[in-house]
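User: Just a sanity check before I run the rest of the batch. Below are the structure tokens for the first item. I only need the designed sequence back.
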């Protein structure tokens, strides 16, 4: 199969293919999604097959406006309107209880709830409108690989396997949306993203909880997808805390390990002469690190001579909670310590 490239001016052709049951990857402000018409179960099934995704891991239903959600939801949480008004379109996925049989169990993993999101990307909103149906959209990567933040990442994983990719350059944020469960009384974050616990509490004026697994690692996550070992490059990743950099570099040299650096300019400039490869975030901010994380992991993972990737950590609050959540998975929770 030839994987076509679509741009903003040929969305009609992409929408036609989606209606015919083909898979088309689309851009969002977080990461690229692997799109299929959410109302065509055979196409949704194909999404699982192409990604190699476990079938008990439900998909997000992407809509062009809030009206589209109303066809499926059984009961809205009292705070829904306030949340939508403040955060949609945007990097916030909402979980609601759904009407029986309104979505195929292949979409929901057989759950009585479903996830909905209105992405903040004009091209993709237009694509959904032209298709006329909502689109499922898991991140457009092979299961277990870092999520795609550029069309070339999607092509790397899926060239020849899907009908097309809508290219809109680099995604703005770089990590997947916040998943907020609104199916119970207390709004609960199942996956941290760019809309933070603080952002939600400030706007809503009520407590917003974190799923138990985000507080204590031994707990089972409520979002099925959070239990899988995600975002995992082939090269081992070690997280390095700010105070440990010089010791980490000395250790790698002593052990004769060719290492790569994944960090902001300040750290890179200090240690790059010793490194076998580098990926430099655009600046030292948490926003730049989040934007570059998956591209950096993918790029450094291609460098076959590298034995270990040393990656910069950030305080796990605000956007840092999302960055550290993804980095910890990529690093299989491993930090550099003086007895590494
Ligand atoms: O930013 C994003 O959310 C991207 C872009 C493409 O929109 N999409 C994305 O999809 O990250 P995916 O499939 O990789 O992640 C969806 C997450 C999974 O962890 C899944 O288990 C969870 O949402 N989820 C979906 N439906 C759920 C439900 N009914 N209850 C609990 N968790 C659910
Ligand atoms: Mg994913």
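Assistant: Here's the designed sequence for the first item:
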């Amino acid at each position: 199969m030839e994987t076509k490239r679509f741009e903003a001016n040929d969305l009609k052709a992409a929408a036609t293919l989606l209606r015919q049951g083909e898979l088309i990857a689309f851009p969002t402000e977080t990461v690229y999604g692997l799109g299929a018409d959410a109302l065509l179960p055979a196409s949704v099934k194909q999404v699982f097959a192409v990604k190699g995704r476990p079938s008990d891991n439900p998909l997000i239903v992407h809509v062009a406006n809030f009206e589209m959600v109303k066809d499926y939801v059984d009961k809205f949480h009292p705070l829904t309107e306030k949340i939508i008004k403040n955060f949609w379109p945007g990097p916030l996925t909402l979980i609601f209880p759904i009407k029986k049989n309104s979505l195929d169990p292949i979409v929901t993993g057989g759950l009585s709830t479903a996830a909905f999101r209105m992405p903040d990307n004009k091209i993709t909103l237009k694509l959904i409108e032209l298709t006329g149906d909502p689109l499922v959209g898991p991140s457009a990567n092979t299961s277990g690989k870092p999520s795609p933040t550029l069309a070339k990442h999607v092509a790397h994983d899926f060239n020849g396997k899907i009908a097309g990719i809508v290219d809109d350059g680099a995604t703005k944020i770089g990590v997947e949306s916040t998943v907020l469960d609104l199916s119970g009384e207390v709004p609960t974050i199942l996956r941290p993203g760019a809309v933070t616990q603080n952002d939600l509490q400030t706007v809503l004026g009520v407590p917003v909880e974190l799923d138990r697994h985000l507080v204590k690692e031994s707990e089972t996550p409520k979002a099925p997808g959070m239990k899988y070992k995600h975002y995992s490059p082939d090269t081992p990743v070690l997280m390095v805390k700010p105070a440990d950099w010089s010791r980490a570099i000395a250790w790698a040299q002593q052990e004769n390990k060719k290492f790569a650096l994944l960090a902001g300019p300040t750290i890179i400039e200090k240690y790059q002469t010793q490194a076998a490869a580098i990926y430099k975030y655009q600046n030292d901010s948490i926003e730049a690190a989040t934007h570059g994380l998956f591209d950096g992991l993918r790029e450094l993972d291609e460098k076959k001579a590298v034995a270990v990737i040393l990656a910069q950590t950030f305080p796990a609050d605000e956007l840092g909670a999302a960055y550290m959540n993804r980095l910890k998975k990529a690093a299989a929770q491993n930090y550099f310590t003086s007895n590494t």
